[in-house]
Write a structure and sequence with these properties.
2 domains; Rossmann fold; about 10% strand; about 400 residues; four-stranded parallel sheet; alpha/beta
Length: about 400
């Protein structure tokens, strides 16, 4: 039996500590900030939508507001009493839309923030905590940390058993993908483009939050050659040059354009019908937000990228996830609305890709960086090493 990680052992101790009634607990968060968390947490404010989803799947009755408005489609998958929660705005991130006065109006017992951990994020958390006297914890939002986060926050919110249950599911999904990567040759891992936004010309750079689920699948993000960071704008000409084997659209508008606009018909991924729409209701399977909702994206991406080794029933996995995490039983109509645009035409998995990564190092397992093999020609129809001359040139990409 493998040894438990340090985070898992800490989570176990927290379960025991928070199980003691009438006792506040000292907690060291992912930014190494010491925060005293009350023993009874009845009202939680989420600093961003990722944290809101985390609280919602664990103890929805304790979530006092969403950080972003829900769309009509999202509300259709969420019980009405929770779909009607107010919108408080986002306390952290590159463009905060809320401040300490929002905390004062809502009177939370605890503020939870999940996402990238940085000195700037920690400083803002400290400032809001000092102004409001409300405990504010920062948690690393990486996919690999989701199981331990579910255990830890479940204990804080008094739902330790549910936290353990969801963590077990998340670990199984992560380990299942790792196992498929171990038996899949690196030469069969496709080049992938993920198009965000209405026009699909926004995408994630290397190691961005938007690409974390796709990176977990061990495939090659064609935009990673532009450097590391978060989001960047690209052109249609760049996508043609990169020649991805698979294109995933975040929004219906881009998905529809790929299938109807003649300007895209020269792209093999389009002509071979290897274009897919990422489900987004109630929360995205890839990002939007980059939270626990991405766990479902792992089996889905496995089915797309490695059909020869993915043996599970995707529809059964989707039903199970929605019932377990969101407490909703999907109707057949809802299930098909989610899955059909996200799979190969006719429900058949795509065939093998046989994309050679000639001379490159094998694609790393989840958590690693991009390959660092010798620079080869740019990925065209041969799909060779997408990182020529990595690290990237000093000129920064157009980031947002």
């Amino acid at each position: 039996m493998p040894l438990c990680s340090l985070a898992a052992r800490i989570a176990f101790l927290l379960v025991a500590l928070f199980a003691v009634p009438g006792r506040a607990a000292g907690f060291v968060d992912s930014a190494e900030r010491y925060v005293v968390v009350p023993d009874r947490v009845g009202r939680v404010m989420a600093a961003n939508q990722s944290a809101a989803v985390l609280v919602f799947v664990l103890a929805p009755e304790k979530l006092i507001a969403w950080s972003q408005p829900l769309t009509r489609g999202q509300r259709g998958y969420i019980p009405a009493r929770f779909a009607r929660l107010s919108v408080a705005g986002q306390l952290n991130g590159p463009t905060p839309t809320a401040a300490a006065d929002a905390v004062g109006r809502l009177h939370p017992d605890l503020i939870i923030d999940t996402g990238p951990v940085s000195a700037e994020a920690a400083a803002r958390a400290d400032a809001i905590q000092q102004q409001t006297r409300t405990p504010y914890i920062l948690l690393d939002g990486s996919i690999q940390h989701i199981p331990d986060t579910l255990v830890t926050v479940g204990a804080m919110l008094g739902v330790a058993e549910r936290g353990q249950d969801l963590a077990t599911y998340a670990r199984r999904a992560i380990d299942g993908l790792r196992g498929r990567l171990l038996i899949t040759e690196s030469t069969s891992r496709p080049l992938v483009y993920y198009g965000r936004g209405a026009d699909g010309l926004e995408t994630g750079l290397a190691r961005s939050q938007a690409m974390a689920a796709i990176d977990q699948a061990g495939v090659i993000n064609v935009a990673a050659r532009l450097g590391s960071g978060e989001l960047t704008r690209v052109t249609r000409e760049q996508i043609f040059q990169w020649d991805p084997a698979i294109i995933i659209a975040q929004q219906h508008s881009f998905y529809n354009v790929l299938q109807r606009d003649r300007r895209w018909r020269g792209l093999p991924a389009v002509t071979q019908k290897r274009v897919y729409l990422a489900p987004t209701d109630p929360f995205g399977w890839i990002d939007d937000p980059p939270g626990v909702n991405r766990i479902l994206g792992l089996p889905w991406l496995s089915a797309l990228f490695y059909p020869d080794v993915y043996q599970e029933d995707l529809r059964a996995s989707v039903r199970e996830f929605y019932e377990k995490f969101y407490r909703v039983k999907l109707t057949d109509r809802q299930l098909e609305a989610l899955v059909r645009p996200a799979e190969a035409p006719g429900g058949q998995a795509p065939g093998g890709f046989n994309v050679p990564i000639l001379g490159a190092e094998p694609v790393p397992l989840p958590g690693g960086g991009p390959p660092t093999g010798p620079g080869l020609r740019p990925p065209g129809r041969g799909g060779t090493n997408p990182y020529p001359g990595y690290p990237p040139p000093t000129a920064p990409p157009n980031r947002q």
